[in-house]
Amino acid sequence: MARNTPTPGQKISYFLVILFGVFILYLDINTNTFNGIKNGFSSFKISSSYLLKKYSIDQITELSRLFKSKDYLSKENKMLKEQLDKSYLDNFIISREKSFFYDHSSLNKIINGNKFIESYSLAKLKSFNPNIFNCCDKHRMYIEIIQNTNKDIKEGAVFNETGIIGQVVNNKSFYEVMLLTDTKSSIPLTNSKGDFYCNASGSGASDYITCSYSQLVWLDDHELGEKFFSSGLGGIYPKGIEIGNLESIKIVDTSTTLLTIKLISNPLHSNLFGVIKL
Amino acid sequence: MMYSLLKKLFLIIFICYVEYILAPGLIKLNIVLPLTFLAYSFYMYRSKNNIGPVEAFCTGLFIDLISNTFFGHNAVLFCFASYLINTYANAFKLFSYLQVCIFFGVSASAYVGFTQIIINLYNFSYLTLFVSTLFNILLCISIAILSVYFPSLTNRKI
């Protein structure tokens, strides 16, 4: 559709408007008549941009800073937790130095040389299914070594701050740990008097191991709540570490008695473990 | 009506801002790109109805205000551009794209020339004027080519 060209009347209006514009231009160039309007607009522009920035960009920046700060605190918290867990492991070894080290001077060497890290390998939990742990016979978990003593740790004893939890049985991709409660696990135990020895097997139930012995060989009676320690036989677990308390005694037949021992260690207690090979 | 006006104002502010961002880089190459003027000229050219002198004047005055130049500078030039485009609106239909591009390029360089006279008289540069003319014509041709190959870009209703 064709557009109308300006009529003479419109041309006059164009002329007048342009004339008015030129007048304004002349006025603005030669006088300060419009400075008030310009300054007012500039101040409006500055204040509105300030307000916009304050209530939009600054808020987002602040939010982002807050998230970063929280993230940083969370990382720091995690790092501190790891350090704390590690110190618990160190304390665990120091408090049982006679059990862990046959050569007692080695602990002094470690303390003096500030070489706790070199006394055992530090491992982190990689995979563990607590549901399987609470229901089934096969109690395994996988750990990853984060600080190594450069020793072969296969068949090394794995412990956390609560006590010994199992042994390394496989090192294909990650280290597989067979927990004491696994039905295939076996740990030599002794009582506090040292007049009774037996091999305790995993019960398949979390927190419990069982020890079966012949009454014909071991005549002494046991009391509920009696403490059991690792005997150190077999060379895998250190000697004299408290393993658990006697929970129940069951006479299976005339010659066989089954002791159920409740473990004091808990593999779910922390994600950091120590692995030591004697 | 109100929505359309707000949209136009917003577009003007946006284009003015883009021009403000581009200007320092282009001036080093002796180029002045009057993007707001070109955009408004294009709007007047594409518009189905004539843009009256008052509307063009007010728009120019608003651009003077937001771009912090002398009042009346853009107002007069926009008004003049509106007069030219309205006068030759039907004649443009007979022109080729190239001719229309040259018209817009030359009108942009006229804008640059007047602007230089008004706000930069003591440093008036023919080199800047000449380079700007070439650049503006080439830019208009590029936009025309784009509109031929990508019609959806220029067929949008403002």
TrEMBL record, chain A:
- Please name the GO terms of the biological process aspect recorded for this protein, alphabetically: regulation of cell shape
Coiled-coil intervals, chain numbering = none
Q: Which GO terms describe its cellular component?
A: plasma membrane
Give start and end of each Rod shape-determining protein MreC beta-barrel core domain. 142-263
Please indicate which superkingdom the organism of origin belongs to: Bacteria
InterPro entries per the record? Answer: Cell/Rod_1, Cell/Rod_MreC_2, MreC, MreC_beta-barrel_core
Q: Which residues form the signal peptide?
A: none
Family assignment? Belongs to the MreC family.
In Swiss-Prot or TrEMBL terms, this protein is called Cell shape-determining protein MreC
From TrEMBL, chain B:
Spans through the membrane = 12-45, 65-85, 97-119, 125-150
Report keywords, A-Z. Answer: Cell membrane, Cell shape, Membrane, Transmembrane, Transmembrane helix
Q: What is the predominant subcellular site recorded for this chain?
A: membrane
Keyword Amino-acid biosynthesis included in the entry's annotation: no
Q: Name one GO biological process term.
A: regulation of cell shape
Tell me where it resides.
Answer: Cell membrane
| Source species, domain of life | Bacteria
Question: Cellular component per GO?
Answer: plasma membrane
The record describes its membrane topology as: Multi-pass membrane protein
So what family is this one in?
Belongs to the MreD family.
Q: Report what the protein is called.
A: Rod shape-determining protein MreD
- Source organism per entry reads SAR86 cluster bacterium SAR86A
